[in-house]
């Protein structure tokens, strides 16, 4: 099974959608690819800072110079956008955050080797311009400032601004760690889907590290998740357990308004919110194609997003190599069906505590009781992965400290 979403051919993608039923069937088929769980991948995102002064605004010209041939075309239009030596792609987010997306791997050991190598190279590239990677899920110092200007980001920011400031913060100042897991066989997918959601509050509480934002220590353990929740409720709310998650996701996709419509000329804004289903019915002209539907799917940002595989989006980015702890714990928990079932059972009492997890972290009593049980289960499952003994011991040690809410000193941005 391939941990990817294969786009339709050019001819198929350009085909106009005839009905909601057709659109829902298409979404279900491309967003949930079924087969034996075999692969895992990660995407890591960081804010970028000047070494001498992390409060100093980022200059995109310096960032482009540092990334060189790896710079994306959104940053340097004529860039060759070469992947890193391992095949990982480099992208840049609206506020100048840098992200690497590694190719999925069957071996967790190989995944760690690839990602740590990519991080080391990225650190060297940025260091050539006296830049460095941030260590938190949100920029601790700077106010949200959009640096990349594209029709997509222009339309998104204007739409989010009508709701509140959370969207701009999410776009420009946050950095997440994403873990990508296979959806599993048809009969496995509902449990894997619901278990990933049930574990969301647990992993948010255990690994939140973005309390300080804009130079002020706030009341939320994960200000990154706070900004996500404040962005656009229908676009970002968590999913729910469902016996047919593919059908439920398809319905949700069609009921979500289009945030932008791609046009050859002029802005991509949608003046009045129009559900994608209503676009199909004729509320916008011309009618949408499957390619438009694929693009619409990229504008939904729930904590778990199906993309052929299941993309976990609820983790704050971690400093340096510390990404391995939450990522490998999740991979271990989903390596065997019986562990998935046990994790879902243990997490069930706190499965809906998304806001308390992001706001209070392990100060929330129900989560303080649940987190040690789940991290212990994850640590036990690690033995089934092909990890070196020293890395295994390190993950277990960090997880045990996280389970009791012990702060880990990875260094504060700007310290």
List the topology elements.
Layout: H1 10-14, H2 20-31, E1 40-46, E2 48-50, H3 60-67, E3 89-92, E4 98-101, H4 108-127, E5 131-133, H5 151-161, H6 166-173, E6 176-181, H7 189-198, H8 200-207, E7 212-213, E8 216-217, H9 223-229, H10 233-236, H11 245-255, H12 276-280, H13 290-297, E9 304-306, E10 310-316, H14 324-333, H15 337-347, H16 354-360, H17 365-381, H18 389-403
Antiparallel strand pairs: 1-4, 1-6, 2-5, 3-4, 6-10, 7-8, 9-10
Helix pairs in contact: 2-11, 5-6, 6-9, 7-15, 8-16, 8-17, 14-17, 14-18, 15-17, 17-18
Major sheet summary line? 6 strands, antiparallel
The whole-number mean of residue pLDDT values reads 94
Q: Could you tell me the radius of gyration in angstroms?
A: 21 Å
Strand order of the largest sheet: 3-4-1-6-10-9
* Helix vs. strand class: alpha+beta
What string gives the helices and strands in order? HHEEHEEHEHHEHHEEHHHHHEEHHHHH
What fraction strand?
5-15%
Shape: globular
Query: Helicity level, as a percent range?
Result: 40-55%
Number of strands: 10
End-to-end separation in angstroms reads 44 Å
Extract low-pLDDT stretches. Answer: 407-415
The number of helical elements comes to 18
Oligomerization state: single chain
């Amino acid at each position: 099974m391939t941990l990817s979403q294969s786009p339709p051919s050019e001819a198929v993608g350009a085909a106009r959608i005839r009905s909601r039923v057709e659109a829902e069937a298409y979404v279900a088929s491309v967003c949930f690819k079924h087969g034996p769980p075999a692969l895992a991948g990660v995407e890591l995102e960081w804010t970028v800072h000047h070494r001498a002064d992390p409060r100093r605004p980022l200059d995109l010209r310096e960032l482009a110079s540092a990334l060189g041939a790896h710079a994306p075309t959104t940053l340097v239009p004529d860039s060759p956008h070469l992947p890193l030596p391992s095949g990982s792609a480099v992208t840049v987010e609206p506020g100048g955050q840098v992200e690497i997306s590694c190719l999925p791997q069957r071996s967790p050991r190989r995944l760690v080797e690839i990602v740590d190598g990519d991080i080391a190279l990225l650190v060297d590239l940025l260091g050539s311009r006296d830049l460095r990677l941030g260590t938190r899920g949100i920029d601790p110092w700077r106010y949200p400032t959009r640096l990349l200007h594209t029709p997509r980001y222009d339309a998104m920011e204007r739409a989010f601004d009508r709701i509140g400031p959370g969207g701009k913060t999410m776009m420009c100042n946050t950095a997440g760690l994403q873990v990508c897991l296979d959806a599993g066989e048809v009969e496995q997918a509902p449990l894997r889907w619901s278990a990933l959601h049930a574990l969301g509050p647990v992993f948010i509480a255990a690994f939140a590290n973005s309390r300080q934002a804009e130079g002020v220590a706030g009341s939320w353990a994960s200000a990154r998740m706070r900004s996500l929740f404040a962005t656009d409720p229908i676009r970002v709310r968590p999913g729910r357990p469902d016996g047919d998650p593919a059908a439920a996701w398809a319905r949700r996709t069609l009921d979500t308004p289009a945030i932008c419509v791609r046009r050859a000329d002029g802005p991509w804004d949608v003046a009045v919110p129009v559900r994608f289903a209503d676009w199909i019915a004729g509320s916008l002209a011309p009618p949408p194609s499957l390619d438009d539907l694929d693009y619409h799917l990229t504008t939904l940002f729930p904590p778990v997003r199906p993309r052929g595989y299941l993309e976990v989006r609820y983790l704050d980015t971690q400093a340096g190599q510390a990404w391995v702890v939450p990522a490998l714990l999740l991979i271990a928990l989903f390596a065997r069906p019986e562990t998935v079932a046990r994790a879902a059972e243990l997490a069930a009492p706190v499965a809906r505590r998304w806001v308390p997890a992001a706001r209070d972290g392990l100060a929330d009593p129900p989560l303080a009781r649940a987190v040690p049980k789940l991290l212990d289960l994850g640590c036990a499952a690690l033995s089934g992965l092909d990890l070196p003994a020293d890395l295994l011991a390190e993950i277990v040690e960090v997880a045990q400290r996280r389970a009791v809410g012990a702060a880990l000193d990875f260094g504060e941005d700007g310290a």
